[in-house]
Every structure is written in C-alpha cells, then in structure tokens.
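Re: beginner question about structure tokens

> Can someone show what the tokenized structure looks like for a real chain? I only ever see the sequence side.

Sure, here's an example I had lying around. Input first:
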Amino acid sequence: RSGVTLARKGVYELVVCGTPGGVLAAAMLVPQRGEATLIPTDKTRVRAVVGLNGGTSVSVNDDDTALIQAASIPVLGDYQLVGAGTSAVSLAVDGTDIPMSNVQLAAGSDYSLVYTGTGAAVTQSVVADVNRLPASGTFKIRLVNAMSALDEPLSMSVDFVPVLDAVGLGSAALSD
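And the corresponding structure tokens:
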C-alpha cells in the first residue's frame, strides 16, 4: 500500500487484523522497538439485491462499478470491491434511470443494497452484512427480504426448526 515507508535494514512485524465485514483486512506495522502504525483498508464490498414488483430488467452501479447489468428481476448480485465513503448509486429499470440517494459505505465493511417496491416507487435499503465464519456450528444463514410483491415479513426454518422470524421488507437477518 502506498504511504508506508520501511527503514533500510529494519525489522518489522506485520499484524493482519479483521474488519467489520469479515472478509477484507487491515494491518498494523510494528517496527522493532518502535510504535505501531495502523494500515487501514480504504475499500468496502457491496452487492445489489433487486426484488421489484414490476419491470423485467435492472442495472445497478456504484459510482463507476457495475453491480448488476441488464439482469432479470429478481436478482442477487455478487460482491464487488469499491472505494469506501460516499457512493453515488444509479439504478435503471427497463432502461429508465431512477434517482437514488447516495450511500455511505464504511471501510472494511460488506453491504447489500436492497431495492424493493415497484419501478415507479423504488425503496433503497442499505444492509450491513457480516460474513465472518460462525463461532460455533458449521454454517450461518442470512435471509434478505426483497419480496416486494408479498410486502410481508418473512420467516425461515431449517429442517423444520425456526431460525429466523419476521424479517421485514428491505431488511436482512443472520442466524446464529
């Protein structure tokens, strides 16, 4: 990373640190007999989830990064690496641009931008995702409710055992 200067013939320890999203990393550079320097990430990961009631095709961009391009609705995009900070998000449904609010994305975090409603009245929700491995057990399950046509909270069971309950439209929940 630029901005880090190493002394010639120096001895350093590099400590890799986790970030809020659970996938990206930050670091600390510790010179022998010296003071630690934090080397934060300036990136975040973001994806789009579109469950609009109406429309057939959608495109979503975060500044200059394509999150979804001309995909059929409903669609769950893959995470893309983007710069942290204020992001200008653009949405187009069936080729018609729909104004969206800018979103604030914290460095080291993962987000789902969830779009619900109709092509004429789109709601944008920013959901912080945590993609760390489970502390116990073998898996976690995330339920993202983008079922605009249903417009009801969703619940989920695994092997007939309830794991998530009453997840509202445009929001998400993570099992333990």
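Each token stands for a local structural state, so reading them left to right follows the chain. The longest strand covers residues 110-118.
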